[in-house]
Fold this sequence. Notes:
Blueprint: H1 3-22, E1 30-38, E2 42-48, E3 51-56, E4 74-82, E5 89-92, H2 101-111, E6 115-123, E7 126-131, E8 134-139, E9 158-167, E10 173-177, H3 179-194, E11 202-211, E12 214-218, E13 223-227, E14 248-258, E15 266-271, H4 283-286, E16 292-301, E17 304-310, E18 313-318, E19 340-349, E20 354-359, H5 361-374, H6 393-406
Parallel strand pairs: 3-5, 8-10, 13-15, 18-20
Antiparallel strand pairs: 1-2, 1-4, 2-3, 4-5, 6-7, 6-9, 7-8, 9-10, 11-12, 11-14, 12-13, 14-15, 16-17, 16-19, 17-18, 19-20
Amino acid sequence: MTDENDFEALLKELEKTEQAVAARPKVGDRVQGTIIEIGDEQLFVDIGGKAEATMDIANLRDAEGQVSKAVGDAIEASVTGIDSETGNLVLGNRHGRQAHGSEQLEAAFHSGTPVEGQITGTTKGGLEVQIAGQRAFCPASQADLRFIEDLSTLVGERSSFRITKFEGGRRLNLVVSRRAILEQEQAERATETRAKLEPGAVLPGTVVGLQPFGAFIDLGGVEGMIHISELALGRIRHPEEVLRIGQEIEVAVLRIEQTNNPKRPERIALSMRALARNPWSDAAERYRPGSRIHGRIERLEPFGAFVELEPGLTGLIHISELGAGRRLEHPKELVQAGQEVDAVVVEVDSERRRIGLSLSPERIAEGEGREHRAAPTAAPRDMSAPNSDVGTLGELLKAQLGRDETR
């Protein structure tokens, strides 16, 4: 081979090297590769083009601490830095990576790459965070998507942060934001959720807020509200009676209204009630006339007492069915709201959603017993007659009518 041929071959090799360097991924790029080795703290990834990258093994551990990948598995990750000693690319996931040293922290600041840190305590106006052995400050307003009254509940957690301020020197001045990472994740989830969002859709959600008028539900980056009237079939006084913060539930989308607020571009009305079984569908079979039921008096009206038989199913004891013929001015003379009673089903009208009730014979007898004791003109009871205080419903009504005629 001549010197000219040697020189031409050298130029081609140089050209290939320059092309490889130009094509080398930069910080922030997403790359794909194959795991070629897994160590105690790091794993090595072949990303092609004779290039090799490393990744902290913590990025692949699940909630139980188990590594979710094996040698030979494909992997996709972001380039979060370049190892100053080996020149290898350093990979991480979108939740952040563990940084080492001030140079990598500064690089993460300029590139906006998330870093991993541990919340070690609270301080005036925010949280103290340890990142790569350096103390950082996270303002209270940047700790979460929502205002957290007691920041100490976050102490001990490992999380991802974005460095918003970096000042070098003997002692680094680091200010970080956890909220920025959460907002990014929320935006990604919101895009997926909005693709499924339409009236009638049934979606999973998490309870994130409770107010007297309703509950706020995170549907996955998008928030909706269940009005208190849509929480259950029966009446409730406060959402806390059926829900708690952090509870995972299933909801139906009732309607979506667009707003002019960029932070909340839509107002989403949700319902749990719509997914509940309609108790009136088989009420006539389950509550046959003459059967006894047990319920709780929900409220009183001048014409009678409403009794909750089950959520969404209420019966009425008309005032004429309360006192076994005894004339009452108001149901409160005999019963009160919140009281549990035994009653007898008189009639069921599923189409009009009405169930007529009457106080059970035991309850009527109890009321009659009180009237006998209170009436000074009542005849003395014959102690020799067995079970003189107990009779059928018809006998009790006849006795009452007889007393009314003599008055």
